[in-house]
Amino acid sequence: DAKTTQPNSMESNEEEPVHLPCNHSTISGTDYIHWYRQLPSQGPEYVIHGLTSNVNNRMASLAIAEDRKSSTLILHRATLRDAAVYYCIIVNSGSARQLTFGSGTQLTVLP
Amino acid sequence: ETGVTQTPRHLVMGMTNKKSLKCEQHLGHNAMYWYKQSAKKPLELMFVYNFKEQTENNSVPSRFSPECPNSSHLFLHLHTLQPEDSALYLCASSQEGRLAELQETQYFGPGTRLLVL
Question: Which residues of A touch B (CB under 8 A)?
């Protein structure tokens, strides 16, 4: 399974954009990149996923490098409610119904 | 009620007790999951049920016993637990459990915070 590397923590100011990086240098051609986040005292929630092209939804944008060895989750205007642990997960045919969570990035949003 | 619900939200039990955690999903999904989240450790998948059949058991000790009577309900029966089993237990569901399809997403409940004394 492709492994991911994320910074342990990041800080952002409220109402500013946040770029959360993820390295996945061993990703294979058919592997999908998923992002989940876990707010305090809650279960994880799905944020976004992609394969090759950049993706946008109401929560965030996902920018995928051309070689797919890294990706960046973009929160366009961080709010205090975006403070959470963000997980980058590679899903492939070998993972067979499993989301393998790493340690993620703890995002702190400063007022 | 919508989404994935879990009860109780908090549970304290002794090592000789027997208790059960309950999960219910109102999303019409066919796959349900139990995860364990210990302090300062990543989430660990415990069990997967797909169309009421157990399809994954990630080497979980027998003191944890899952039950899936139908696609909407999932239980985790606990007996003779150890203090190291104290953790947040999370339930999740997905449409068809075919994460190997690679695009399927999972929906999580709020978890049950378990403390074993």
Answer: 30-32, 34, 41-46, 49, 91-93, 95-104
Of A42, A26, A46, give the one whose Cα is nearest residue A34.
A46
Q: Does B2 touch chain A (CB under 8 A)?
A: no
One digit per residue, the tens of pLDDT, for chain B of length 117 reads 569 999 999 999 999 899 999 999 999 999 999 999 998 788 999 999 988 888 878 889 999 999 999 999 999 999 999 999 999 999 999 887 555 466 778 999 999 999 999
State phi, psi for A82 to the nearest 5 degrees.
Answer: -85, -5
- The vertex-A30 CA angle with A27 and A36, nearest 5°, equals 65
**8 A C-beta contact, residue B66 and residue B76:** yes
Query: Chain A within 8 Å of B110 (Cβ-Cβ)?
Result: yes
Confirm or reject contact between B90 and chain A (CB < 8 A): yes
B80: CB partners within 8 A, 6+ apart: B15, B16, B63
**Radius of gyration of chain B, Cα coordinates, nearest whole angstrom:** 14
Cβ–Cβ of A97/B99 closer than 8 Å? yes
